[in-house]
Specification:
Immunoglobulin-like; 8 strands; 34% strand
């Protein structure tokens, strides 16, 4: 009975050290919250992250609380973070460095921007589209079909 208890204790220690080792990755993450001028969460805002030196880029959208997280980012610098949403324009923050295990928090407060939309002109032609006849054509009437064998 004493050896079973000892074996269980050793197994528990081994499993706990394995989970700690797995938690220490070489990747980093950037997370944050996107709000508007009144402090309300901006749902569905586009968030993009780019490592300017390597060209690596990825993105996500904010959830119902205006939060985002981008995990497993390669280490390095400088990172830039862009946020955009219709009616708010785009904001950018740059110069972030990611080291092993970093959990960087980058929040944005978006301000309303007036955006002028260009007019779209639709032009239609009332003439019916016709297909030109190609090759020989013969008219066949009801009399021709009655006389056919």
């Amino acid at each position: 009975m004493h050896t079973i208890t000892r074996s269980i204790a050793i197994l528990a220690i081994l499993l706990s050290t394995c989970s700690i080792a797995n938690a220490q990755g070489t990747q980093a993450m950037i997370a944050g919250t996107i709000t508007d001028e009144t402090g309300e969460a901006v749902i569905g805002a586009t968030v993009r992250v780019k490592n300017e030196s390597t060209g690596f880029s990825t993105g996500t959208v904010t959830n119902l609380n205006g939060e985002y997280s981008i995990k497993q980012l390669p280490l390095g610098s400088p990172y830039s973070v862009w946020v955009s949403y219709i009616g708010f324009g785009e904001q950018r923050k740059t110069g972030y460095a990611l080291n092993q295990g970093d959990m960087l928090k980058v929040d944005f407060q978006l301000t309303i921007e007036a955006q002028q939309i260009q007019a779209v002109e639709v032009v239609a032609n009332s003439l019916k589209n016709t297909t030109p006849d190609i090759g020989a054509a013969t008219s066949v009437g009801s009399r021709d079909t009655a006389e056919a064998p």
